[in-house]
Predict the 3D structure of the following.
Amino acid sequence: MKSKTRRLDSFKERAPLGYLLFDVAKLMKRRFEEEARSHGVTLPQWRALAHVAFTDSISQVALAQAIDTDQMTVSGVLDRLEKRGLITREADPADSRAKLARVTDKGLAIVESARAAGTAMYEAALVGVAPEQTAIATAVLQQMRNNLLGQAAETKD
């Protein structure tokens, strides 16, 4: 068991950024889950509700693609949001088989509250981090994302 632990420790030492990214993302996700629960919604419901709120209207197919979830899961999530009066669904004038989701005022209030809590959490996470450090971290993460997507890094003029 000791040799296995050493191999993992060695890898962790060679890739500390990956481990830190995972830990920070996990902690942020946990905080968002707590915030969503305080409003009586799950994290998947919150993600769907927020995305619907940031669009005028969106189909189930487009929403599933946008939040990287399968259509059946999104259908169930939208059903629950609609039952709570957080969204409405209307027939899509361009496709009679599809429905478009729209956020209600009640749903928008939850999104705005969660956004404020998310902003506060983000700001708390950055306490003690200089703006220059944040800019460097952002540039590094953007480059890593571009590398993983197989795209060339965007250059600034």
